[in-house]
Amino acid sequence: MAKRSAPEVNAGSMADIAFLLLIFFLVTTTIETDAGLNRKLPPIQDENTPPPPLKKKNIFQVLINQQNDILVEENEMELGDVRQAAIDFLDNGGQGCDYCQGKRDPASSDNPNKAVISLQHTRETDYSTYIAIQNELVAAYNFLRNREADRLFQMSFTEMEANFNDAQYNGDKDLLESRIETIRDMYPMKLSEAEPKESK
């Protein structure tokens, strides 16, 4: 009796099927990316150009030591009080700020355009504490920006930025961009993050 040979499987289209599956998974898979910290670095300046002069009263110093204690203007402060202290400093309105609602303390900042917040830490500071302080300082800027945007445009600054970054927003993006710039000019984010200090 003659042996029957087993029929061969045609594998010619297997490469095409594998290629189609690969394309399908590449197109449909979403890859999560870390957002990171949203910071705009200052422009590079010529080394021969001296930095602009700053009055000491226009600098709000925040230091985090190796025990994660928060020192604001050399006084110990709780994390929950940092935001309000920064708001009071930025919104003081000592000179030429008709929209500021602060106490106009002559010992505090002259104007939001001149006010600088300096954040410094030691190398032993916990990362979580540093980020928590940074969030409070950014929240102070956001509070003031939201207040002014709501007063001028009846929309929060956060909402305006979200709409501007939304690809499906149907409104006038040029108008929105000019309004965002107006608010940023009123309360520019001048948050200086200095090099870590060596602990003693």
Q: Could you tell me the strand content as a percent range?
A: 5-15%
Q: Provide mean pLDDT, rounded.
A: 83
Q: Which sequence of strands runs across the widest sheet?
A: 3-2-1-4-5
Overall shape: elongated
Query: What is the CA–CA distance across the termini?
Result: 96 Å
Cα-atom radius of gyration: 27 Å
Extended strand count: 5
Poorly predicted sequence stretches spanning 5 or more consecutive residues? none
* Secondary structure category: alpha/beta
Helix content: 25-40%
| Sheet having the most strands | 5 strands, mixed
**How many alpha or pi helices?**
5
* Secondary-structure element pattern, one letter each: HEEEHEHHHE
